[in-house]
Amino acid sequence: MKIKQFLFKYSLEFLVIVLGISLSVSLEKRNAKEYQKNLKNQSLNRIKKNLEVDMVDLKYNYEAHTMASESIKWISENNTNLLAFPKEEVGLHVSNAITIGTIFVDNQEEYRALQNSGLIELIELEDVVMALQNKYIYHEFYKKIEEETLNQTKELRDYLYANTMLVNEETNYLGYLSGRVFT
Questions:
Q1: Which pLDDT belongs to residue 4?
Q2: For residue 182, what are the β-bridge partners?
Q3: Chain mean pLDDT for the chain
Q4: pLDDT of the residue at 1
Q5: DSSP E strands: which ranges in 29-178?
Q6: 182: Cβ–Cβ under 8 A, 6 or more apart, which residues?
């Protein structure tokens, strides 16, 4: 009888210890997963804020490049009779075509941290993961285009300085100088 009591008592204690350890491990796993989920959500919120800033920057870049493109088109269409137009108008278009250029700078730090930590795997929506990856994959391509554009405008700056004169330092709504006159 004592052996049965002894076995029952120690079996019960063993069971309590095993259940306690199992519960502790389970809670620890749950807490670790919750912590990772919180980190992932913090990163995604920061990326969202970065994207909001990028959208403002993108709108500015679009407007600037549209203005430059329109001036390039105007010069191309009127290149044979530029002297027939007011010098201020020609100077403005030449200046816009050559000097307006932007560089898109996006913040990749948060995405890289999310990617390198492995937390990107916790994102449940595959479309979100693919959209993030595609956005940052194309970044290098955009940088190459920007570099080439800036290199080409360097060659044209000599033409700008030889054929226009800055008569005032007025700027347009985007902040670019608009006070050049064709000489």
A1: 79
A2: 164
A3: 88
A4: 65
A5: 164-166
A6: 82, 87, 88, 90, 91, 94, 163, 164
**Is the confidence at residue 129, as pLDDT, over 90?**
no
| Amino acid residing at 177 | L
Helix (H, G, I), strand (E, B) or coil at 32: helix
- d(CA 20, CA 78) in angstroms, rounded, equals 85
pLDDT digits (tens, 9 = 90+) for 62-91: 999 999 999 999 999 999 999 999 999 999
Q: What percent of the chain has pLDDT over 70?
A: 99
Calculated CA dihedral for residues 107, 108, 110, 115, nearest 10 degrees: 170
Long-range contacts of 81-84 (CB under 8 A, 24+ apart): 82/182
Distance CA(149)–CA(142), nearest Å, equals 11
Distances (CA, A) of 119 to 6, 35, 131: 50, 11, 16
Sign of CA dihedral 129, 130, 132, 136: positive
For residues 139 and 108, the answer to whether their CB atoms sit within 8 Å is yes
Gap between the Cα atoms of 82 and 75, Å rounded: 8
Token look-up 């700027």 returns: 171
Pair 90, 182: CB distance under 8 Å: yes
**125 phi and psi angles, rounded to 5 deg:** -90, 115
Length of the chain: 183
